[in-house]
């Protein structure tokens, strides 16, 4: 693997408050060899090592999308798109979608629900170097109740033994994380409503314990307020959506939020790139309520991680920055948003070798034209992407 010394106007070392002006990063053998000022590293790094000079640009850690479904096609009927697809064609489509994310500067994706372990197969192809793609963290088949949310992916469970067996099956097939559909969801019309629990508090605890036996954390899809509370008590690692729904409408519970903060649980408030359309469809009152919930959680100190839910209807792959701009529209600082895309996910996903630029870390980094700390849109002008030290574009 080639060595290269990248220099740019600034290096966001991570977290985003840590910036080296006129900085440089040495990439060697898939890892970061050194980080410093351009003057220092230009002088100390062997003159034969190629220089990649990027005037006007920023180097920053590769971004992470903590919630995607590579097996879904973002079209109106993802269920048929997954269940009727020819497995070989679906594998090709999955690889292409992962590459779209990578080209957008996303060097790590967490897939939270696929079929037949297809994303694990993609992960192996990427890791072996046969295919170019982002680092893949795969959940395989999400646990769900019979006829429940995304049951068509193959993870329906009823009894405690079913739960143990499904987790063991996922772990054996190479899952990196266990996903549970703790409440209903919008995608599965005949299943429980979004606020209805699919598992009891006791079952959720069992799922977390069983996953831990296999060395895995749990990501819980949870829309319902009561279910969110049960997920906190059970000790899940991340809560997906976290939209505080009940049969009577939105009911926010600050005590549960305090539990989220105290137990170091991260929240992936999935938002697609075309969130403006989504807000319009919600209507002003519901949209305002949803935004207020996010503000409340932010003020309480919740750690947010960035995720697009790419693959579900309307959530396109590769429109990652659009999702980040949603948080900017709510008044989040650019540095805070960059942390949601880098250091926060690394912490939440238990990845200690990525998310910041430091010697010994995986060389997952991107170069963008401009300064994302002052102009978030500069993240759309990706000039270079390095995935484990491999330059994957330009
Ligand atoms: Zn999802």
Description:
It is globular, with a radius of gyration of 21 Å. The chain has two domains: 4-62 and 355-391, Urease, subunit C, domain 1 (Roll); 63-348, Alpha-Beta Barrel (TIM Barrel). The mean pLDDT is 95. The protein has helices at residues 38-44, 78-83, 87-103, 118-128, 160-172, 201-213, 225-234, 254-262, 275-282, 284-300, 320-329, 334-341, 343-348; strands spanning 4-12, 19-28, 31-37, 51-61, 63-68, 106-111, 135-138, 178-181, 218-224, 238-246, 249-250, 266-268, 303-304, 365-369, 382-387, 390-391. It is 34% helix and 24% strand. The chain contains 13 helices and 16 strands. The strands form three sheets. The protein has a seven-stranded mixed β-sheet. The longest helix is centred in the first third of the chain and has 17 residues, at 87-103. Zinc ion is lined by residues 67, 69, 112, 309, 312. The site of zinc ion has 5 residues, from loops.
Radius of gyration: 21 Å
Q: How much beta, percentage-wise?
A: 15-25%
Query: Which CATH architecture of the largest domain?
Result: Alpha-Beta Barrel
Largest sheet composition: 7 strands, mixed
Question: CATH top level of the largest domain?
Answer: Alpha Beta
Low-confidence stretches: none
> What portion of residues is helical?
25-40%
**In order across it, which strands form the biggest sheet?**
3-2-1-4-14-15-16
The number of helices is 13
In angstroms, what separates the terminal alpha carbons?
17 Å
| SSE run | EEEHEEHHEHEHEHEHEEHEHHEHHHEEE
The number of strands is 16
Question: Mean pLDDT, rounded to whole units?
Answer: 95
Kindly report the CATH topology of the largest domain: TIM Barrel
Provide the number of structural domains. Answer: 2
**What do we call the CATH homologous superfamily of the largest domain?**
Metal-dependent hydrolases
């Amino acid at each position: 693997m080639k060595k290269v010394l990248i220099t740019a106007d600034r290096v966001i070392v991570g977290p985003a408050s840590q910036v080296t002006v006129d900085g440089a990063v040495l990439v060697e053998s898939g890892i970061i060899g050194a980080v410093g000022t351009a003057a220092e590293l230009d002088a100390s790094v062997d003159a034969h090592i190629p220089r990649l000079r990027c005037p006007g640009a920023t180097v920053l850690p590769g971004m992470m999308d903590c919630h995607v479904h590579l097996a879904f096609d973002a079209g109106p009927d993802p269920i048929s798109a997954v269940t009727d697809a020819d497995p070989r064609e679906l594998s090709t489509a999955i690889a292409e979608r992962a590459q779209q994310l990578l080209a957008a500067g996303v060097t790590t994706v967490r897939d939270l629900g696929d079929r037949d372990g297809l994303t694990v197969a993609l992960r192996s192809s990427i890791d072996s170097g046969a295919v170019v793609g982002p680092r893949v963290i795969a959940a395989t088949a999400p646990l769900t109740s019979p006829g429940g949310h995304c049951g068509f992916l193959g993870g329906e469970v009823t009894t405690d033994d079913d739960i143990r067996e499904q987790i063991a099956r996922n772990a054996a097939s190479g899952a990196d994380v266990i996903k549970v559909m703790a409440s209903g969801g919008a995608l599965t019309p005949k299943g429980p409503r979004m606020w209805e629990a699919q598992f009891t508090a006791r079952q959720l605890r069992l799922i977390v314990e069983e996953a831990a036996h296999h060395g895995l954390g749990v990501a819980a899809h949870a829309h319902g307020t009561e279910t969110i509370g049960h997920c906190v008590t059970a000790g899940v690692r991340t809560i997906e959506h976290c939209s505080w729904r009940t049969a009577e409408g939105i009911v926010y519970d600050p005590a549960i939020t305090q539990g989220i903060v105290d137990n170091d649980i991260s929240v992936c408030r999935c938002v697609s790139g075309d969130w403006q359309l989504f807000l319009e469809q919600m209507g002003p009152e519901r949209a305002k309520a949803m935004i207020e919930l996010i503000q409340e959680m932010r003020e309480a100190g919740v750690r947010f991680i960035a995720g697009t839910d790419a693959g579900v209807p309307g959530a396109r792959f590769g429109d990652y920055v659009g999702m980040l701009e949603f948080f900017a529209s709510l008044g989040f600082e650019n540095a805070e948003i960059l942390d949601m895309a880098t250091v926060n996910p690394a912490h939440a996903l238990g990845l200690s070798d990525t998310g910041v630029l430091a010697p010994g870390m995986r060389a997952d980094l991107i170069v963008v034209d401009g300064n994302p700390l002052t102009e978030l849109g500069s993240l759309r002008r990706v000039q270079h992407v390095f995935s484990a030290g491999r330059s994957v574009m330009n």
